[in-house]
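Archive transcription. Copying these from loose printouts into the bound notebook so they stop getting lost. Printout 1 of 2:
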Amino acid sequence: MLSVSILYELRVTIITIIIISIIFLKTVVEHNYEKFFLIQSLKKLSIVSIITLLLQSFWLLPFLLAKGTSSSVVELANRSIFYSFVRLHNALTIHHPFWTSQKPVAFVHNSIPIIYSLIPILIISTLILYNQKKLTNKAHSWVSVWIIISLIGILLTKQNHAPFAGLYEFLYEHLPGFSLYRESTKFFLFTLLGYSALIVIGYDYWSKMISSRAKFKNFLLILVSVIYLVIPLTNIIPIFNGDFETMFTPRIKSNDYSLIEKKLNEDQFFYRTLWVPKDSRWTPDNNLHPKVSLTNVVNEDWSKYLDDPFSDTLFSKISNMMSKESLFESLIKGGSIKYVFVPIQDTANDDDFFIHYGGDEVHEIRNWYIKKLKEMKFLKEIDLGLEDVVAFENTSFSNYLDISNNIVNLDSRIISIPN
């Protein structure tokens, strides 16, 4: 499982290993550093570690041989810190700031439902029991561990917000490996695990205490259970009443994207398609006709051609690029882009991304993009039988030509050339 976790998400795996290490140290202390227990535990950990390393050797060995200078890894570890929307009350209530109880809305600080205030209250009730030493000896000895794990999660998840606002940045700059965590939401895992244990310990105490008292026993047990279950029940209600969106809501693909895919399949020579401002979830994409998102190339490969490549907003970069027709034409021609498309602003199918790329600055932002493209002389609006997607053809497009030592690729026909 550990090996699979590394393949899926290395950063979460590191957090998992840290949590396991804390629990292991606590277990060692519980056994009074017993030699036999320690040796047996280390043997098992060694076997798991060796198997995991062997399974990951296909990428670890090249990385180590390159002395950790792999460009992709270096780029990942040297990114600047991403602004955090997670504040202290988000960290305390383990509520992601992008979550609306129906669907995630990125880059918006959504309000926290009042019901989530129950979470820290339940945790505090466990801490009160711990302080008054009303828990069983075993539960009491483990509470401090879960408190530490929870506090680590809270302190790191809130990132650059008070208290200790500078802690995250300090760790990011000075603690080796911490720069992999550009933003802090992965540290919710600490808090989730710590809270889960503390809530269970608290519930176990209250249920046992109520069971030992005959008066109103059943009623009180139900009441306590409802209090502890109200939050998870609140989370799943939108699934049953139809308010829950994303994967629980059926989406309908516009026929426009099917027509575009049919057109691309008919062309048997290489070219790219450019999607302005970005590609839709339905955008056709294949090796012969790969899709290109304007937001991606403007933010990466084409950024060096901008007047202000370090502009604060992506929309300002796009606007800057589209205001330079000759440069825009050269980049599109050099990128072997034959067609330029403006996708549908599809709010009904949760495929409206225009708000993130100028929608909060320009009224009817999609029409703004269409107008800008229509003003460019090298682009010709074409009729592909589409209802909503707007299509343009690059009139300066020329077929792909590539020369190497042994072959010439001309008009997609590979001709062998003898040495």
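Printout 2 of 2:
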Amino acid sequence: DKYEEICSVMKEVTNDKLKGILNYTDDEVASIDFIGDTYSSIFNAKHGISLNDNFVKLVSWYVFT
């Protein structure tokens, strides 16, 4: 489905164009898990959803230090 395609691309760019800036997780996480994290943002594949092929909800954690 489209959401899986998006997740695949997001995972790919975390190891290429956005390496060191964007991280990827598909774990069950909470804000406390990112304390001290060096990435600007962490894409959370586990918490996003696809309502249909044209509408998805993406979740990314932002770290402020």
